[in-house]
Please model this.
Amino acid sequence: MIGTTADTLMSAVQADGERRLPSVLVMTHSHPKLTRGGAEISANTLFRELKARGAKAWLLGCSSPKSEVRLGATLTQPYGPDDYVYHPNAPFDYFKFANPDPKFPDELAELVAELKPDIVHSHHFVRFGVEMFSAIRRGWPQAKIVLSLHEYLAICNHHGQMMKTVTYRLCEKESYSACAACFPQHGERDFFLRKRYLQMFFEDVDLFISPSRFLAERFMAWGLPEEKLAVLENMPPERSGSPFAAEWDRRAMSGAPQAEAPQTPPKPVAMPMFSGGTRFVAAETGAGSKKRPSAVRPLKIGFFGQMSPLKGITVLMDAARRLKAQKIDNLVIEIYGDYSSQPLEFQKVVTEALEEAGENVVFHGAYDNSQVNALMQRIDAMVIPSTWWENSPVVIQEAFTNGKPVICSNIGGMAEKIVHGVNGLQFEVSRPASLAEMLADLATKPGLLETLAAGVRPPPTAAEMLNRHLDLYDAVIA
Amino acid sequence: MSGMFPAVTSQGCVDFLCYAPSLDGWLAGGWIDLGWDDQDEAPHCALELGEKTISGDAVVITFPRADVRKIGYGLILFVPGENTRAEGLQDVILTRHGQSFRLTPSEPLDHLTEADGVARTKALVSTAMRSSRRAHLLRLLSRPAFAGHDTLDQLQPPVFLELDSASLCPPDGLLLRGWMLDPFKSVESIRLRCAGNSAVIDPDHFVPIARPDVREGFSKQFGGLSDLCGFLAYAAGVYQAGEIVYFEVRTVNGDIGFKRVQQVRSPGIDTIKDTLGHLELRYEAMERAYDHVLGPAVKAMNAFRLQKPVGYREMSLGVQPEAPRCTIIVPLYGRIDFMELQLAFFSRTLGRQYEIIYVLDDPNLERATEALATSCLARFRLPFRLVVLDANVGYAPANNVGLTLARGEYVCFLNSDVFPKTPDWLDHMVETADARPDVGVVGALLVFEDETVQHEGCSYEILPEFAGWTFSLHPRKGRFPSDDDGIAPADAITGACLMMPTSLARAVGGLDEGYVIGDFEDVDLCRKAQAMGKQCVVDRRARLYHLERQSQGGQQSFWRLNLTLYNAWRFQNRWTRGTDPWIAPAETADRPA
Model:
């Protein structure tokens, strides 16, 4: 199944009218109405698209602390008849992803017995617990169980990052001894049991969907059977928040000229405070046209996302310093993101770096995801300097949606999506000099940016992605 | 009562009685019939106290006594002997040359303290005619008695005796840990006394403990000191609740010093650990230490700990099988998540013909375990029973509670860190036991998480560094298993996974609770089954993971190792030295139908 890429499946797409649509219970570890992580957005888009297509679909997400609880009720329906919220009733075991809530297995079994879905597609196993699969099996044995993998959590106890805890070096493979070395509070035997526990409950899953081949291969190496793994990108993010989104999607698909970027004022960072040295970019006019008037303004490289060590913000800042030292001044790095939730020590590092940064760094602060397309229109290329593997960063899809090439670290789930010299550039992970070299190339080699931009293919629309999901559902039901 | 004595021809009376620890004997005063011939030859004395009789050669001294002058003499009597603590003097019978005198207690009889008894005796003896007997008794009476304060530090040459702890080994033994210095070798004897009880403390039986701090502290003052001036000693039959315990040190010069024992620690598993955490014994010294000190002390403490059957409560989770073929008994301590993991794995490997009993031997975790048990049933839907013990009692007693409650034809003792590898592991073991009436114990092939052997049957080996005692070992441990997946005989089977007919397990009394905390019970159980004519086998088709933990270093490992050695000592006494042999029950266990 792993070889069944989305492209080859496209040939199997039937006209919607002829297609028998399966009924699907979409599950996500946090209800999309409550939090807006990647998995929740994917799940919600899937649910929404299924309903839009006329399929029977339900959504089940976990509550947040701010959710209203109905005394004694495990499942509630505050958002409508097809929409369920699960209120976990016991502290979750994040080591082996077990859910000790004694009420949930029966509630879930009863729910699927009542709904009788053809497919239960879960976008996570945290908070529900991996035992959910056996409860679904028991409640409605006819259902096929699909699990989307969003990171390496089952493999790696270090937040699923597959990086060492102390050194933050990249980790190629789990082993009981290596994992116990990262977590001295757990012994090797605990990691042995953790793996057996997870794998035992994963046996009930009929299909694992991985957003990247890289992630799929990591899970194969960990022990998931190849025939149960498929590679399929997550459902694209909603764009309903953006007034330009629908039009943009249509134009991106049709190859029509892109709209001008909106003029949005920069948002100051929430905290910590810093003074001088860092500039808010002024609202610009005329930015974002497809062709960069290089003689008029410098090349704009965008960074979007959390300014965390794993996202490589320090690698980027270091590369900017090097470019400045090399007197490459026709390039500006525009940072859209936030670091207020980072550990204090790291906040200090970033603040100092921003204060010391030259004029080739512009810090815009946090942004609202609904504005992402508009903001991306203001830049010429995107940089993803992540120091960890990544799964399949949604920001790549967003960049491609906006026709922007991507410069990324040469590892993992991101490197897989970027063909060097075609739709972007790759540099050696965690090496600022390598990143600086690529950026210098982009700024100085005439026509390179245009070549890469021309190489960007627009990602599939939500409707197309739904078709690919339906193909996989059909395959697993067959 | 007096039928064993010659006919009583005369009489007298006892007015007062006292036990004098400093004299190691009884003092009595009264009068005796004129027929008594006052001479130096000591009469035999029988002091009938309750149901006990103190008998021995007595020192008897008569003196003129006005109130009985027409019928007899005043009398003082000293009989060496122990304090029986029995109440109610019946008779004192003095016998000499076949002639007996019965002295009856007056009403009421004065029971005097040592100090009062010695003072009264001294006053009366001084009125008697001079004789060697009188001189001897006066010497005895002038011995210093313990007056409640320490006098040991007044001895010259100096003697030092300090205790770090004194632990009760019920009913009346004391385990003493401390240090002693006798730099001028002036100590003649040491006694530990309490309420008239006494025990000789023989430094030759000390278990030596290195105390370099003591040697260093005194090395400027005294030469020739050894690091091994610390000691563990055991005194049996001394302690009496509520009474003062003290040492009496006599020197070769005839001086006596006293030293009070400040505190007596009550026995418990922590006392045992604490005691055993200070020792590193090997070779022959080890056997002596266990024979004279550690063995009897730990045995008494453990027996006390388990004297009352532990109470328990039971939760039945789910619908239990009606007539289970086998009951799996798993004691739980600390890691209750092992129950969660085991039940998860069992849910995919065990048929419903099996019963599972978890015995929580960790009362502190009661609520958490109950909640987890409810959750496990909801998640894994495998019925089981949870037994919560009122106290932490250890491996054997916890398993025995499970054995009492087991409803299966067979019982499988299973450790909580053992997890199935093959789905049909227990089916194989039951099948083997069903097919082989000669088999009493069935084990499994246990592997570590890296698939190498943890256990495929135990064999015995004699270890010279451990007093030449016999220990059970795991052959092939750490290596990959052989291709052989048959059934093989073994000397013994590890208790990590050990199956046997329930009737046999009960007939041999279950796991012996005299072993402390958890080793040797399994091998002992196998020996008992073998003594009943049954074999032990390993069924290599049954495969499980045993995630045996590495032992930790430091003080922790000392007490654990020494406790293992205690258990080894008990095992030797039963099965190799024969000093405390196991007696098989008269009726052989019936095999299950």
User: Anything to note?
Assistant: The interface with chain B takes residues 90, 96, 98-106, 129, 131, 134-135, 138, 176, 187-189, 192-193, 196-197, 200-201 of chain A (CB under 8 Å). Chain A has two domains: 6-150+203-236+462-477, 262-455.
